[in-house]
User: Fold these one by one.
Assistant:
Number 1:
Amino acid sequence: MALQTREQHIKREKATSNICTSQALLATMAGFYAVYHGSEGLRRIAGRIHAATASVAAKLIEAGYKVENEQYFDTLKIVLPANVSQQQLKTIAEQREMNFRYFETGEVGISIGEGITADKLSDLLTTFSLAAGKEGVEVENIPAKAIIADTFKRKSGYLQHEVFNIYHTETELMRYIKRLDRKDISLAHSMISLGSCTMKLNAASEMLPLSMSAMQNIHPFAPKDQAAGYMQLIGELGDYLKEITGFAGVSFQPNSGAAGEYAGLMTIRAYQDSIGQGDRNIVLIPASAHGTNPASAVQAGYTPVIVASDELGNVDMNDLKVKAEQNKDNLAAYMITYPSTHGIFETDIREMCDIIHQYGGQVYMDGANMNAQVGLTNPGFIGADVCHLNLHKTFAIPHGGGGPGEGPIGVAAHLVPFLPHHQEMDGSSLNTVSSSPYGSAGILPITYGYIRMMGEEGLSRATKIAILNANYLAEIFKDTYGIVYRGKMGRVGHELILECRNVKDTSGITEGDISKRLMDFGFHAPTLSFPVHGTLMIEPTESESLAELDKFVEAMNTIWDEIKEVENGAYSKEDNVLVNAPHPEYEICADEWAHPYPRSKAAYPAAFVKDNKFWINVARIDNAYGDRNLISCLCDMG
Ligand SMILES: *Cc1c(COP(=O)(O)O)cnc(C)c1O
């Protein structure tokens, strides 16, 4: 099993999924759970859960209840005796601070987890017993085992790999996790300039609520009167986001930006349906759009039509007018990223919205680049009808491990009634896109804290610094590498696309070589060949200081000099620091060194590197091979 295969959305409208931000971090945590407990541990835990469930079933039957499911693992569906009503049981349960599942057909559902203790079992059984007019129940201990029908028993081995069998103490597990952690370059080492990803600081003060049990131990379906704090937080955060976006309503259901795109398009369809225009099926998408846009449009059942870019990277306004006119009877929506995925503020943005509206379409603004807008402008002002926000980009939720994310959508007033509803929220299932009413609500306190602590002034300042930092780098690199696109005012937005194609023509050095060489300096590569092939996209974010930006500049300038050394023949095209990068420790300290440049040039290319050297784990790998083949590395799972 591979936890992450290559992102499908890169294939744009040919993708079969729109997933970009996923739940990879949570999957990794689940993986560690299995590593720690191993097959025997999991079997023991499961056996205890089942035994506890079986003892509950037996005691309930004694007390006059009926268990409807004959075979079960941890969940019972309970039929109440004739003299006990669901309401009676519920009243007693709530007095005793317990929530059960109440079926509309009258049964009650419970599930037992591994946190069960004899005391909790006593509490649970006492509740049922009191409801049946009987006495409290005292359970001494949880039986160690229960019989599982032979038909359902697993007989084959599982989790047999070494990794599930050697880290069964906390000390060992801690060291194993730390060992893996040390293989990763993170924001704790240096700037991660991945354009389009917004790898900004996730401040400790914002992350604190994640370790508060009051924030984390609540079920998404808990009765609302038991979740007053969360309801207040969600309500206030919704108000802040409305103010920030200039919109009238917000839904927190989507768990990622791409899920927001899907939800936004469904909202548009429901609205158009309501005015008798539900068969509009064309979505115009600029060529510069992020791959999730066309992928989401297809997932939502639309046909994307691509609008060309002009030579400056802007939407080609003529092409937009022609395509909007051509499709006027079927035009459902226009998806536009602002500032664009080319990193520039398009000055024609309001005119674009007008054109789409004139032909009966709705404007979906991809708000992933909202960190270049907050406090300065907003999608409502621009004239858009819907947008998603990547709370895990602009609003400080960490997403380095791949997720979880939160991609709420904001909409203009006419679309509010068609926002995703949820059975557990208001009894309606119109446009439900998530199994929980407010998506990954458990991470909303991060964004709430970020907005509250930054305040109006802080948020606008963050936007300004993000734009300033990008323009600082653009000014410095303009005369060497070159900047691919600039806006009408000669500036970039919050990110920039670095030209690497000229260098390739003169020296054979590619954008990939530059990225790999940056690792020798202790920098994570910028975004490679996206959205323009043969380039690097750099987004410094507002989190980086001038000192860190200058280190990055020093690294890139040193690399520029190294490219010149290849160009002027000081080193051959086949054997130089760039094509051989990155240089891991095992190569640098090997007994043999056959390259024409010294080891010190390879490992310590700038003075600042000596202070904080990050040793990369492996030398150059075959990217294309790795993309196409699932490689299980049995030799070194550590
Ligand atoms: C990141 C991004 C998306 C997708 O968001 P996810 O949360 O990763 O699904 C969409 N559009 C743009 C411009 C982005 O940068």
Number 2:
Amino acid sequence: MSQSVNLFTHAPIVPNRFIAEVNGISIHLKREDLLHPEVSGNKFRKLKYNIAEAISQKREILLTFGGAYSNHIAATAAAGKISGLKTIGVIRGEELGKDLEKTLQENPTLRFAHVCGMRFHFISRSDYRQKTSEAFIEELHEKFGNFYLVPEGGTNELAIKGCEEILLQGDAEFDVISCAVGTGGTISGIINSSAEHQQILGFPALKGDFLKSEIERFSKKSNWELIPNYHFGGYAKVDRELIEFMNDFRSNYGVLLDPVYTGKMMYGIFHLARKGYFLKNTRILAIHTGGLQGISGMNEVLKMKNLPPILT
Ligand SMILES: *Cc1c(COP(=O)(O)O)cnc(C)c1O
């Protein structure tokens, strides 16, 4: 194995940033997107102890799962490159493997992962649904050897341990902590390290009510709630209003949001603040979980739908 460097011991501490006062509510941002240029936001937190575990088990390969624009795929590919581990991405969408050149040309996420050295295994949507079955994982082991498996979205016990490091001691001054929710790993870590008086609000980026039980499985407290009405139609769905909100946010505060997660969460926070959901003088800390690598891929999709681009 090549020399490994532990990028995770060099996590900078990024100060919280005041964004706006809306209807007597003050909104601050924790810029986890600034942790690392390639392993961004919550994916940095989620990979930290998994990579350490893979190295201590002397595995040379990380294998994980994701969609074609997945932040987790991009982050795992980069983290593998930096840590001296090979990476295999099992990607949803058999058709993407038919002409790899074309796929790489069209898809900035997979192009980035490819340049980091990730090897792809493209599978059908129905096979993809098997991704947690023992037989399917056994097959992957026969094909790819003794890899360390990181689940889709990176969520497992070690990922949650990493996400417990998002909140710092000084953050106890906030009344509300908010974050976007995909698999629920990030919010579970945040809940675990929150103070009793704090309310944790999660904004699911997708439809469905399976998330609540996932979070209950990983977190020990009950000071949290999911706000289900800001998914904009489902995972990776966007509309003109969301894009305009994100572009205004960028020009007002100089911060980019991503269209799949943080844009929707921030839209939700502003919307709730304006309609009087929070008590006066509430102090909110919204977690910017990163994901900015997904903007260019989304802009390709928006072009085809005749929607305006997300400005960068
Ligand atoms: C993956 C991701 C999330 C969702 O995190 P979970 O731990 O899966 O809930 C949120 N925000 C961004 C930017 C992400 O990339």
